[in-house]
Specification:
The chain is of the alpha+beta class and 542 residues long. Helices cover 23% and strands 19% of the residues. The protein has a seven-stranded mixed beta sheet, covered by helices on one side. Helix 9 packs parallel to helix 12 and helix 9 packs across helix 13. The longest helix has 14 residues.
Length: 542
Amino acid sequence: MPLIKINGIETEVPAGVNLIEAAKQVGIEIPHYCYHPGLRVVASCRMCLVKIEGMPKLVPACQTPVRPAPAERKVEGKYDMVVVTNDAVVKDAQESILEFLLLNHPVDCPECDQAGECLLQDYTFTYGKDHSRFEFDKRVPARKDLGPQILLIATRCILCSRCVRFTQEVTGTREIFIKNRGYQAEIEVHPGKSLNNKLSMCTADICPVGALVTKDFLFKPRNWRYQRVRTVCPGCSVGCNVHIESMEEDNQIYRIKPAYNARVNQWWACDDGRLLYHVYRKLERLEYPLVRENGKLRHSNWKQAFQAVRDRLTAYKPEQLALVGSGYLTNEENFLLQKIFREGLNARHICLNDHYPREADVVYPKFVIKGEKVPNFQGAADTLRPSLSFGDLLKKIEAGEIRAVYWAGGGPYPALPEEELPILDKLDVLIVQDISHSAITERAEVVLAGATAYEKEGTFTNDQHHVQRIRPAVMPPGAAKTDFEILRELVDGFDLGLYLQPQTVFQEIAATIDGYRGMSYTALDEQGLTKGQKVPEAVARS
């Protein structure tokens, strides 16, 4: 690999890597606006100009790759490149570029939704001048409604073209372009079009200056007031990595943004997944356990609810019992469910609900949104190890062969088509573990109030067999428990072991289920692991 020196620091970098990425390896920031690692390089903002020994003028770091030099051209006899990013000439160029970019900028930071995470704000403080020489009227183009989710505040735009390139390269939908040239240039939507693709909110993520803002985040508290948790989106089986921003004082989610994962979603996340928390917020959540008494479901406490579950399940023969697992539960929760039925009740009717509604996949050039809206269907199949199909289960209920069912839900959508609901009326006992009131909970003998994927810890396995950790961003409402807490109590009640945390269950999964062997929470880290992927020995031991 070429040996280079950046601001006096030596480092080896693979040939072809641009200087912005090379500098990151040694902890040096080269400021930039138009460059984004997920988009093609255009080198238009000129903010990343640097000096290279032997070059007659400053060059854009985003467009300049590291490359080996012939022996006779090596600097100081050993360096392929010597780069300087902090001398007087480079600093003067940075100050001049920022002065030009701020000519028409309104400097409205106190009311800007991007304040606190704006590169124009940050770079002006770090690299800019402390005053402006521009004494003329500023140009004030009108605000524009670009689409259902995106608003353009054109006075802040620096024409980096990131948003335009995103719609050209990632979605291929090409809704927006740069109209006019020079002083009159501005972002515009093509006539008859709207920025309404399923990834439109990503344009606000990659906008470096707050010109593009999501309507969902307008007029909300400042970003520095939020707690940020990295987890996995429960919107579909892709398993996009996301940051969930919430406030502890009201236990509410305020924004969801994508988190980088090279194997899963790269830098992107779809609008549906980012807005899914509104769907969960509108649900009529279960806040306490319910037990049917004298024909009516009544509020209960957890001790009585757990006892009612054990009493009702143990009243039936193993062949009359069945478990319906859920792709909304974590791998650890589904594993405990099947353990209760296989080892605690000797039941063999284990199945996974696959009757949730499914949409068509949405396919873009560099991103796919799955129509399967159950986030952990693959993981549930792995950990439950179903013994019969869901369709066969319904047939056995209709035939009277199965008399008692433990039903796990956890999602925001109907778990059973309306025409199949009457089948459940043939049961003697229906125990439901779910997050909201529904037509299924109304038929139950016992209802256990569980948690959403935003409220618990564990692992999901996506449609590509990639295993990832989910983490809680908010707390379950009222007296509701996480599903792991519910199942931990039931496992203990059947004397099947003590599991203090999901990590303990995952260790058992990794020891007993093919594809998960060698995995651990430490090995999963933030990026996750694909089933069968070799885990480094040192990480596996930890």
